[in-house]
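Is 4AD placement plausible here? Inputs below.
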Amino acid sequence: MKLRTISDLLTQDYVRSEVDIKGWVRTFRANRFIALNDGSTLNNIQCVVDFETLEESLLKRITTGAAIHIKGELVESQGKGQKVEIQVTCIKILGDSDPETYPIQPKKHSFEFLRENAHLRTRTNTFSAVMRLRSALSFAIHKYFNENGFHNVHTPIITGSDAEGAGEMFRVTNLDAKKPPLNEEGHVDYSKDFFGKETNLTVSGQLEAETYAMSLGKVYTFGPTFRAENSNTSRHLAEFWMIEPEVAFMDLAGNMDLAEDFMKFVIKYILKNNREDLDFLDARLQDEDKRKPQNERNDMSLIEKLNFVTDNNFKRVSYTEAIDILRDSTPNKKKKFKYIIKDWGTDLQSEHERFLVEKHFKCPVILFDYPADIKAFYMRMNDDGKTVRAMDILFPGIGEIVGGAQREERLEVLKQRMAASNIPEEELWWYLDLRKFGTAVHAGFGLGFERLVMFATGMSNIRDVIPFPRTPQNAEF
Ligand code: 4AD
Ligand code: MG
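Reply from A.M.:
I modeled the complex. Tokens:
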């Protein structure tokens, strides 16, 4: 007999057939009803055992968390709460679970507690729903690019260059930490290191993706990226996943169109294909909301928020316009912002981004044409000589979810920008080559995958949307 999943049993017509299922016990009540889950769906299947025919010793081993194998007949359920159930004819304990010490009890646990038990937290409804959605979003992303003629490029994880020029990188080395070889000046001699030079974990696959865009046309990379920034916030990870498309002959306007179309596609995909998990998370959030003071409650349910993104145009606003709006805003005048906006040229903090999205425009916003001084060296300089063709997409509840730009394709201008940022030309000779041999307008962006998953699931801490979060002082599991 083929081993079926609980999802199969609940969605296809197997009534009156013999079924065979394996999973983990969620609850066992009245020595009779096992709620079994196998991860294929949020829903458990109810398995009804005839305790009179079961040995006492076996009965005792049906505990929360135990892995079991069930055979029986799928029948229409007599009770409320489920359409079908299994009348068990044979039960086998595959792996016992000690009910005294099993951390995931059938009750509400705090997210903090579950983070400490990240190896078991996907046995809860909330985390299994979040992780199934994460998987579906990942699939939808590949599907979008595949259907739109993009090629997937695996950019390197170990790199010799700092793509963002921000110096927030993790070093990769196999030198002896206690006694590294030193050069004549007494500094660590990286020419003796594994790669013969200093290397780091990548902060972005963009620069390498650009080289592929300049031959394959439309490409994207989707991989892990690493940042050693010491920001212990609910929106930052030291290891996160990024989706970075890069397109030849596309300008900033095209980049905005692509990003908007892409974001709408992946959200529509989960609305269509993952409704059960979304509805569960929606209900969870509404329940959480009820316990909050009126002014902190969400104006929209999760599903409404997702529909809102797919149904509305993203508002496109220049940095300069945004600064004017922020300068004149009530929280700025009343000094409610932690960082008061005074002059053109200051970087926006997440409180400003969220004000624009949540209070002012009340829809996703694409900010563009930022001051060159606060953006990376590779962004294309505008004719005004002070702004670059950058774009950030801001989402409600998240702030910045996408960062991108049209790239500087003019060799001389790029060299000047690199010099201004103290980036040696030798380090990026190959990047400069792209501007020597068939250079062309091109653009791309980076979407922080975990920020997308946060938005799609309504989870408020980024640590709860990645299986094993890496943050300052924390790399357990
Ligand atoms: O804005 P960022 O730094 O842009 C880049 O890395 C570009 N090279 C992308 C490109 O144009 N190809 O990062 C892009 C996105 C951010 O908008 C944010 O969503 C996410 O990556 N991000 C983080 N997510 C989690 N933890 C962090 N520490 C993040 N840093 C950036
Ligand atoms: Mg950014």
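Short version: The pocket of 4AD (ligand 1) is lined by residues 163-164, 204, 206, 227, 229, 236-237, 240, 242, 244, 400-405, 444-446, 448, 450-451 (CB under 6 Å).
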